[in-house]
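User: Hi! Is it possible to get a structure for several chains at once, not just one? Here's what I have:
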Amino acid sequence: MNNNNEYNIVLCGVGGQGTILASKILAQTAIRQGINCRVGETHGMSQRGGSVISHFRMGKSVQGAITPVGHGDLMLAFEPVESLRYLNFMKTKASVVLNTHPIIPTSVNAGLAKYPLESEIKKVLEDYPLEIIGFDASSIAHRLGSVIALNMVILGASASLPTFPFSAEEMKKSIEELVKPQFLDLNIKAFNAGFVKENR
Amino acid sequence: MLTENKPGKNVLLMGNQAVVRGALEAGVDVAATYPGTPASEIGDNFAKIAKKAGIYFEYAPNEKIAFETALSASWSGLRSIVSMKHVGLNVAADALMSITYGGTEGGMVIAMGDDPSCFSSQNEQDSRNYARFAQIPCLEPSNAQETKEMVKYAFELSEQFKLPVMIRETTRIAHGSGNVSFGPLPEKKRSGEFKRDKVRKAVLPAHAYQLHPDLLKRIETLSAYIENSPWVNMKLKGKTGIIANGNTMNYVTESLQYENLENEVSTLHLGCTYPLPRKSIETFIKHCDLVLVCEELDPITENTAKEIAYDLGLPCKIHGKDLLPLTYEFDTGIIHQALVKMIGLSPKEKFDSKVKINPEMLPPRYPVLCPGCPHRATFYAIRKAFPKAVYTSDIGCYTLGIQPPMNAVDTCVCMGASISMGVAFSKFLPDKVVATIGDSTFFHTGIPALINAVYNGSKATVVIMDNSITAMTGQQPCPSCGISSLGDSCPPILPENVAQALNIPFIRVVDPLDLHHTIEVMKEAAKLDDTSVIVSRSICCMIDKNKYVLAEVIEDECIGCQICTKTYACPALIWNMDIKKVHIDETLCNGCGACIQVCPSKAIRRKES
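Assistant: Yes, the chains can be modeled jointly so their relative placement is included. Here is the combined structure:
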């Protein structure tokens, strides 16, 4: 929490990657502890494989659903290039959990644009500066059963950060409350895999 | 969860869910909608709970019909709510403008989803103008809890003043979630009763003439009443003040908190923006000598405040759109900047970012049709059969056909305009004209335009892209899908039968995923000099994701021609620049099989299962 009594998490990626559920799980954890929070989501047009951003904001003074520019404490980047697109929301010296697995936009496939190298993306983040926790979260989810569980791997990794506002146990409780029973096992495994650094 | 009768329970609700809960706590009897972002989840949540909660719910074919359903409920003495996106009210406006003189009976709420910044809309029209135009109250919540309370209040207000009450959510409220504390759910249910009152319920010229002054009287009483409502929140402190409506107040509060100015700057938070509480505004601008009016989009409150200051000769200097933009949604930084400028503050906080990223590092990621989407196949066939045509299109997922390499959308105006404008263009231009429209949009406002094609003549080819669902807004059922608003099965209404009834000379039904046949049929239509209708039917790929066997590229047989990635461009087709071959991302592939037909060297085939 900063001196304005707020903690802002910016979740970004590509439509369909599960940023909305991830932000709901964060909010559920806050609500259970009686903490004031807001979630701002992207719906509609941008869900169709477009770039998406969600905000999770908590703390006594939080009113609006979007993080003020330059005030993000933690970024959960579900896709590498998307971390750059929303970098302006972040404070300097904030942290980013970065999934290094790219999703190539059709503009690149059709030869109309280029996708930057992982090293180039990391350099921009490092220069900002952000502290990067980068790993291939998609492959971990895929190995565990489905790339759909990517959001849980990322939440797990963020829960391992010392500055993260919730414990892993609290987060898992919310996952149990919000995830459909048939996917629960996979989701908890994915969360644990993200949490335990050796698996990354 | 929304139907739990647990007063005091604290939950996370999205604004749209809070609308539903508020209506339930008010004992709503009838809900109707046509889906539209950002208001869609209101209807979707009603659809889920309607049976359990014992309320009537319908997805109407369009907003006007939804509005009239809600109005009929009101005139039956029932409580009703109709929800739609901002542009939906353009469709329903005919009914809205006609009924305010005579007024409503049972409480009627219009829940609007406005979309500043056009996240998923064709414009950013400000619904407050409609409230003023039609003379109905407009309430604007600033968070989920307030949304729920306002909706409850709106039903009472509606019954008291015999007017439909608008709840205006913007995208950030509709799709923002926050803590909500439940209130009790009422027990009793009403039953419909029609009270005959021809003067109020039949809007003949003589009746309207007689009733207009009555409406103005009601609004006058309402203006005084609203001053003491919970939705006018004045904090008089220093001589500098800020007036803000709905969600905008959140950004104001945050800006003041960041600068530790909460105890120095006066604020007037308006949850009611029509009629505006003129007395409160007067008190506020008498107290202040410098005021900033913060409102997204149009300067409605600002103009009223200036009008009051002028009429009373008040010295207060009022700023608004001179310091704040007329376009797009606001955020804390925008309000902060205007405040800093107005009072000449040296700010403690900064809301800009030093980040400068080379645009080349940000490849555009436009929204695209899903992998396996049948619309992509239809557009591919259209471009093969009608390589040079004028392509009129409509509102829905298929508007995405505008993007390269499809480039199969030249115009998109409003619901149903693909057919009306396609029909007209075919008479004004020497070109071939192809109109593309989805099934839900066809039922919404496409049918009268197709009638016009027959009655007044046309040479256009109308392609009805029937994926049997209202896909873009979240897969709501529509008349063609064989599923009712409440999820029961019912006979589907087929667009080809409508065309048949109109005696359209050329009607064909194709499966777009059979590309070869679809192209052939379209070429046939291209030869005609008369109206043709092609129903291109394949169910939305989001509905049944696992119906096909996935495709794969046989690497040795791929010659790297990129015809698949450059002309079909399904997101599951990935070009590997290093080995100059294409592969299929099996986490994305839906197995529709269209790319198999596109590949000239037959390198793509079904995976062996």
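The longest strand of chain B covers residues 108-114. The mean pLDDT of chain B is 96.

User: Great, thank you!
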